[in-house]
Amino acid sequence: MTAGDPPNKMAEVAGLAAAIADHILAQHEAGTTIPPDQFRMLVSAARMLLDNGVPWPPSVTYLVMEVARRVEEAEPPPKGDEVVAHLEQALDAAKPT
């Protein structure tokens, strides 16, 4: 997809991104391991939305910003699939008690 794609295509991408984010949150809540490919799909969809000036759905914003914050705080900086571990830590920290 490019910047010239119709808005309905971007709405579809936003819906898919939200579904992926919601699925990741549900997996985490259930104590299931989050496959790195799911997180990569979320990041790809979020990037596509960003590149096309489409706001992120709330669950996408939450996950991306929380992971970014955790990665920024990490010493040493994570590489590759370590980012998924940071996502899981971020979700653990945000889980209601």
Task: Indicate the structural class.
Answer: mainly alpha
What integer is the average pLDDT? 79
Amount of helix: over 70%
- The beta-strand count equals 0
Instruction: Report the end-to-end length measured between terminal Cα atoms.
Output: 41 Å
Enumerate how many helices there are, as a single number.
4
Shape: globular
Radius of gyration, Cα only, in angstroms?
14 Å
Low-confidence stretches: none
Q: How much of the polypeptide forms β-strand, as a percent range? A: under 5%
Order of helices and strands: HHHH
Query: How many domains?
Result: 1
Largest sheet: none
How would you characterize the overall build of this protein?
- The chain has one domain (7-94).
- 70% of the residues lie in helices and 0% in strands.
- It is built from 4 helices and no strands.
- The chain has helices at residues 7-29, 36-51, 58-73, 82-94.
- It is globular.
- 21% of the residues are buried.
Structural topology:
Layout: H1 7-29, H2 36-51, H3 58-73, H4 82-94
